[in-house]
Specification:
The complex is a heterotrimer. Chain A contains 3 helices and 9 strands; from the N terminus they run E-E-E-H-E-E-E-E-E-H-E-H. Chain A is an alpha+beta fold. Chain A has helices spanning 32-38, 91-95, 120-130; strands at 7-8, 13-20, 23-30, 41-45, 52-53, 58-64, 67-72, 77-82, 104-108. By secondary structure, chain B is α/β, with parallel strands linked by helices. Chain B has 3 domains: 10-65, no CATH class; 90-343, Aspartate Aminotransferase, domain 2 (3-Layer(aba) Sandwich); 353-472, Aspartate Aminotransferase, domain 1 (Alpha-Beta Complex), CATH 3.90.1150. In chain B, the strands form 3 sheets. A 7-stranded mixed β-sheet of chain B has the order 1-7-6-5-4-2-3, sandwiched between helices. By secondary structure, chain C is an alpha/beta fold. Chain C has 2 domains: 69-81 and 347-445, Aspartate Aminotransferase, domain 1; 83-340, 3-Layer(aba) Sandwich (Aspartate Aminotransferase, domain 2). Chain C is built from 13 helices and 15 strands. Chain C has helices at residues 8-18, 48-60, 83-89, 92-95, 107-124, 136-151, 165-178, 194-200, 222-231, 316-319, 332-368, 395-404, 434-445; strands at 69-70, 128-129, 156-160, 181-185, 205-212, 235-240, 258-262, 278-282, 295-299, 305-309, 374-376, 385-390, 407-408, 411-412, 423-427. In chain C, helix 5 packs parallel to helix 11. Classes of the chains: A alpha+beta, B alpha/beta, C alpha/beta. Chains in contact: A-B, A-C, B-C. Chains B and C meet through helix 3, helix 4, helix 5, helix 6 and helix 7 of B and helix 1, helix 2, helix 3, helix 4 and helix 5 of C.
């Protein structure tokens, strides 16, 4: 997945919306910028398949040694797949945040609110301001 | 002289059939154990404990002790923890058989001396706080917070008032929100302003008739007295809420001002801080709470009562929240607090606060030329310096400075707390340190800021170990010895 | 003042450096209307000698386990404390240090925590132990809260009526606030019947809390009850007596998921109830929801083995209102005492201690029930405690006259168990001698 093709939440999650057999699916992860800011990650909690997620609401957590950060869903819908091995190989997040580092796939309700998210250029601007 | 060959684990010292303790022969008829207890309840093997000799036990733990910094050996300006001198006479007193060997279920008439002491301590803590109803039961400060919030909940239930929220500023100890949740409340954070005080506008916007308690630490975790406190209390009281004072910083105001006089309805003490109970490598503490007379009936039971010239434990308290701890409380810590208070007397306690504040302000006056202190030129018993500017300039962080201080024989200040100050270094000298010690600390801190960043990133250099890999410890937690796979 | 260094001259120099004219000026920030305008109404200061005299006089008014023979238990015990425990734990480097926030200068404490955790794991058979909680009662409450969190069943807990009644009172206090339901299974025969537990447990139950040996000293059928709990998707939280594990099967071997205990027996004096040591160990899967500090092994930058506090993200200073518990301190000093005690006792010493307790308690029970006035309230086998029924139903008078004769003879049970108003709990540790047991028997029969 190329970063330019993704949509972004202010809370540093990305989503890639694809069409799978007529339904819209959002693949969700966190950005390289966020991973850098969080420093050495040590643990992650992801939801179970079937969980309803809501835009802007927490769906999981990542932990570094001395901080816990919530993961906020960028879209509305229901979790249909979880990258359940990811917590066991957190280094993947650093090496391939937009590919192997995906966290959940969400069956979107409508467009899942994706249109309200930032595009890549807008997100880059936000990161520049925060960094 | 430190023994550098330590760090072998007890389990690695173990050798079959070695032993330390010997027990007396059994002087009652020796029945077979499996005749006295059902066979299937018994373990088929010995408990898998290490087998070592008594000299090995002594050498092992003695050598381990030398790997610690402590108040007895080092300046320990760990902000918020009040690492003052722990008097030896208090240890002797607490170890008297008439104190240490009392069973908690002894009848009241056999422990009149102990009950008298505890009764007097209740009175004393009530007087110092200006909140006359006292429970000595909670086991630690956080436990006191929880008990007091339960008292508040019981009070509102009794008054048939639905109160769901506990508010506290963002600079509060993490125990405040955690206790609020355990007591069944929703927690709401109130902002602090740039000066470190409660942001009154934000507070007003969050105040409604759902508020149960506003928790405030005053003097705050930034080491400053929030003079808005009585105004805050008025606002909260007007909405029908209660004020809780986190008494972590009572050391600064003993005999100077009383929480009950500036609007608090409830508070806890940390006697292991304020009244010099030894911190024991992380505990024990105690967390006695004081409340207004109106809230008194809801305190945990039992409390000590005086009836004529006798003392008794009063359990018959219909409105009490019940028990929060088994037995009476952390009596060993309370006895030391009594000793400390009685040693100082009223003038002495006020002098504790005065000297704690004088020392902190003096150290602040020395440190502020080295590291900025965002909250200003004056403080109470502690202050928070920031390494943010130095980090930006040289990449040296508060952590680097803290680690390098260890090399020079100073325990580090508290770092990265409170969360509201970037690169925070929270420094609390306490009243039991000399000007010379603080001068030496400030001089070393200055010298460190002149050292090369590379040297500081790698500090400490002279301790028994260098910086541990905390990421590894958290990613693959190894929380017990397993006899293999250990790094030598 | 005894513990200050600064001379008047120092104070003047310090004030000059600060730029203040007086110490009082430093308190100007406190509004005048809140300043206390009188001295605190406290007794005057005492010198060290006077303090020793005053406290000595108060202490002398108390009977204690050295002046009367102690047969009291119920969660606090008169076990032997070897001299090495006081000598080593009394070192200032241990007891005047604090939480190991700077691991480079706290390897002593951290290694002790790691050794303590390992000892508790070995003793209980559990995978992980924390570095201690406040005491046995709060450890039991925290064990129950852990089970609620792990199972996602916040509404209901089943507790045996034979669990220490003060521990159950703590749970009631905690549950009142969070709206959870505590179902107590009676222990009419001295233990709970598995069938009664089965009837109380359902698919909303987070756990069963059981004490073994229980408050009456009786042995519960832990294995059967743990199966009942597990079949319903609930956990078994077992409160145990650490000394009993010199002989009894370990909590993990009996099916417990969480093991909690009062650790006072392991080298800590009775101290009128505290400070004590809360022990908690559990299965590895629950570790991220376990409260309290944990030491973990790692390496330093030069690859040397060392220890740090780990999994701190569970704790309140990071997770605040989402923390597993509000607990901040541990009982480091008493975890240290327990580690020294267990090292000193070793496997053989702990076993012999447990055997002495069992044999002496059995002898005392037999002696006390040999006459016509007293009977054993329960027929169950007992460990180091047992319940005696006074057929004359005059427990208060009886205990009072025994006290006058030099015996702290037992704990009356009526205040917790109305049906046991004619009963008291007798405890016999390894310290009690044949002569003392016979003396108690004579005194109670007078």
């Amino acid at each position: 997945m190329k970063p330019e093709q993704l949509r972004y939440a202010e809370t540093h999650e990305w989503v890639a919306v694809t069409d799978e057999g007529g339904r819209k699916v959002g693949t969700v992860g966190i950005t390289a910028f966020a991973i850098e800011q969080l420093t050495d990650l040590v643990h992650m909690v992801l939801p179970k398949v079937g969980k309803a997620v809501e835009q802007g609401k927490e769906f999981g957590e990542v932990e570094s040694v001395k901080a816990v950060s919530s993961l906020y869903s960028p879209v509305n819908g229901e979790v249909i797949a979880v990258n359940s091995d990811l917590p066991n190989r957190l280094e993947t997040l650093g090496s391939d945040p937009y590919g192997e580092g995906w966290m959940i796939k969400v069956a979107l309700a409508g467009d899942g609110g994706a249109s309200k998210l930032m595009d890549h250029a807008a997100y880059q601007k936000q990161c520049a301001a925060e960094g | 002289m430190r023994n550098l060959k330590t760090s072998t684990l007890l389990f690695e010292l173990s050798k079959p059939a070695r032993r330390a303790a010997t027990l007396p022969a059994c002087d009652v008829p020796v029945e077979r154990i499996d005749k006295l207890l059902p066979k299937d309840s018994l373990s088929e093997r010995l408990p898998p404990l290490p087998e070592v000799s008594e000299p090995e036990v002594v050498r092992h733990f003695t050598n381990l002790s030398t790997l610690n910094m402590s108040v007895d050996t080092h300046f320990y300006p760990l902000g918020s923890c009040t690492m003052k001198y722990n008097s030896k006479r208090n240890e002797r007193m607490a170890a008297l058989p008439g104190i240490a060997d009392l069973h908690p279920h002894q009848p009241d008439e056999t422990i009149q001396g102990m009950l008298e002491l505890l009764y007097e301590l209740q009175q004393i803590l009530g007087e110092i706080s200006g909140l006359p109803a006292v429970s000595l039961q909670p086991a630690a400060g956080a436990h006191g917070e929880l008990a007091a919030l339960m008292v508040a909940a019981a009070y509102f239930r009794d008054k048939k008032l639905l109160r769901t929220k506990v508010l506290a500023p963002d600079s509060a100890h993490g125990t405040n929100p955690a206790s609020a949740k355990m007591a069944g409340f929703e927690f709401v954070t109130v902002k602090s302003n740039a000066a470190g005080f409660v942001d009154m506008e934000d507070l007003q916007s969050k105040l409604d008739d759902q508020i149960a308690v506003f928790m405030i630490t005053n003097p705050s975790t930034l080491g400053i007295f929030d003079k808005q406190v009585s105004q805050i209390a008025q606002l909260v009281h007007k909405m029908g809420g209660l004020i809780y004072l986190d008494g972590a910083n009572m050391n600064a105001i003993l005999g100077i001002t009383r929480p009950g006089d500036f609007g608090a309805d409830m508070m806890h003490y940390n006697p292991h801080k304020t009244f010099s109970g030894p911190h024991g490598g992380g505990g024990p503490g105690a967390g006695p709470i004081c409340v207004t007379d109106i809230l008194g009936p809801y305190l945990p039971a039992p409390v000590v009562e005086k009836v004529e010239d006798k003392f008794r434990l009063a359990y018959d308290r219909a409105q009490s929240i019940g028990r929060v701890r088994s037995f009476f409380g952390n009596v060993g810590v309370l006895v030391r607090a009594w000793c400390y208070i009685r040693t100082h007397g009223p003038e002495g306690l006020k002098a504790v606060a005065e000297n704690a504040v004088l020392n902190a302000n003096y150290l602040l006056s020395r440190v502020k030329h080295i590291l900025p202190v965002p909250q200003g030129d004056r403080c109470m018993h502690e202050f928070v310096a920031s390494a943010a500017a130095i980090k930006k300039k040289t990449s040296v962080s508060a952590m680097d400075l803290a680690k390098r201080l260890l090399d020079y024989g100073f325990h580090a200040p508290t770092v990265y707390f409170p969360l509201t100050v970037p690169e925070a270094m929270m420094i609390e000298p306490t009243e039991t340190e000399s000007k010379e010690t603080m001068d030496a600390f400030a001089e070393i801190l200055f010298r460190i800021t002149e050292e090369s960043p590379e040297l500081l990133h790698e500090a400490p250099h002279s301790t028994i170990i260098s910086r541990p890999d905390e990421v590894r410890a958290a990613r693959q937690p190894m929380m017990r010895w397993k006899g293999d796979g250990n790094v030598r | 003042m005894p513990y200050f260094y600064n001379t008047p001259e120092d104070q003047q120099a310090m004030l000059a450096a600060i730029g203040a004219s007086s110490v009082d000026e430093l308190f100007d920030v406190i509004p005048a209307e809140h300043r206390l305008k009188r001295p605190l109404a406290l007794p005057p200061a005492l010198s060290e000698m006077e303090l020793a005299q005053q406290l000595g006089a108060l202490a002398a008014k108390n009977d204690h386990a050295g002046s009367k023979v102690c047969f009291l238990g119920g969660g606090s015990y008169d076990h032997f404390v070897p001299a090495v425990v006081d000598a080593l734990a009394g070192r200032g480097e241990f007891y005047t240090s604090y939480t190991p926030y700077q691991p480079e200068v706290a390897q002593g404490n951290l290694q002790v925590m790691f050794e303590y955790q390992t000892l508790i794991c070995e003793l209980t058979g559990m995978d992980v132990s924390n570095a201690s909680l406040y005491d046995g009662g709060s450890a039991a409450a925290e064990g129950v809260l852990l089970a609620m969190s792990v199972t996602g069943r916040p509404g209901k807990v089943v507790v045996a009526g034979s669990v220490n009644p003060e521990y159950r009172q703590i749970l009631e206090t905690y549950f009142e606030c969070i709206g959870a339901h505590l179902v107590t299974v009676p222990a009419a025969s001295g233990i709970v019947r598995p069938a009664d537990v089965a009837a109380a447990v359902d698919s909303d139950t987070a756990c069963v809390l059981l004490q073994h040996p229980n408050f009456f000293g009786c042995l519960e059928d832990v294995a059967a009850i743990s199966k009942i709990a597990h079949d319903a998707g609930a956990l078994l939280v077992q409160s145990f007596d650490p000394i009993s594990l010199g002989l009894l099967k370990r909590p993990a071997d009996l099916g417990a998921d969480v093991a909690v205990a009062e650790g006072q027996s392991l080298g800590t004096p009775m101290l009128y109830g505290g400070p004590y040591l809360g022990i908690m160990a559990c299965k590895e899967a629950f570790v991220r929801r376990m409260p309290g500090r944990i030491a973990g092994q790692t390496v330093d930058r030069r690859g040397r083995r060392c220890w740090v506090l780990t999994l701190q993200t569970r704790e309140q200073h990071i997770r605040r209102e989402k923390a597993t518990s509000n607990i901040c301190t541990n009982q480091g000093l008493f975890a240290l005492r327990a580690a020294i005690y267990l090292a000193q006792m070793g496997p053989q010493g702990l076993k012999e201690t447990a055997e002495l307790c069992v044999r002496k308690a059995a002898y005392a029970k037999q002696q006390l029930t040999a006459g016509s006035r007293f009977s054993a309230a329960f027929s169950q086998p007992t460990f180091k405690e047992f319940v005696i029924r006074d057929k004359q139903n005059r427990v208060a008078d009886l205990l009072k006259s025994a006290s006058a004769a030099g015996y702290l003879a037992g704990i009356p049970l009526g205040k917790w168990y109305p049906e046991l108003e004619d009963c008291f709990l007798v405890t016999v540790t390894e310290k009690r001698t044949k002569g003392e047991i016979e003396g108690l028997t004579r005194s109670l029969n007078q």
